[in-house]
């Protein structure tokens, strides 16, 4: 299926693995308004699909995402209002949703980066659970170069990965780093010559596990990583009660007890 204006984002699902492709290669997948809307639309759709076991987020052409297409978006000043206004009681706006909504999708998300991963593109990748990259992919929190601050959920996602001084340095200087440097800093999960192949292999491994356990694990860490001990321990108990003795937990036991072909059911809602 596809989502968004002129197929800005393509979504293909096979064997429980969704491949989401940013599809504006002539602009290095720069973020214009249709791209923002297509990305958030894809995330919302995949969140509801209980048959999806893992998601790969990648860019078509020579880059993952070069960030905001300032020239196109600024042609209509109303666009900035659309990006920044929070509708209703939502905690995030449209710009933030491009990165933040991937945290809300129960299935694990793997961002595969190459070429450029700048500004909003970098922040979108940080919203994924894992980042697989080429060694020469260029990363930058680019906003300060244009007199701006990062505003696409980086303050939520970056704090889970690096110390505050490094976060400030990368943000204030807009320094470019490559995939190898990003891996050493903790910003990238794996570096290889073919991150897409590695991501597919990893996605298949995740898809072979109980979808309930995988989704509950993602939710557990997202809700508890920066929480108090009490809140973290409460989440452990709360989520264990939701998976213990349920259909997919019984399947997991069967698959480890001589019936490896027993199929899992679709993920429960958490």
UniProtKB/TrEMBL annotation:
Signal peptide: none annotated. This is Crotonase/enoyl-CoA hydratase family protein. InterPro entries: ClpP/crotonase-like_dom_sf (IPR029045), Ech1-like (IPR045002), Enoyl-CoA_hydra/iso (IPR001753), Enoyl-CoA_hydra_C (IPR014748). It comes from Marinobacter vulgaris. Pathway: Lipid metabolism; fatty acid beta-oxidation. NCBIfam families: PRK07509.1 (NF005699). Pfam families: ECH_1 (PF00378). GO terms for biological process: fatty acid beta-oxidation. It comes from the Bacteria. The keyword Lipid metabolism applies. Belongs to the enoyl-CoA hydratase/isomerase family. One of its GO terms (molecular function) is isomerase activity. Keywords: Fatty acid metabolism, Isomerase, Lipid metabolism. The keyword RNA-binding does not apply.
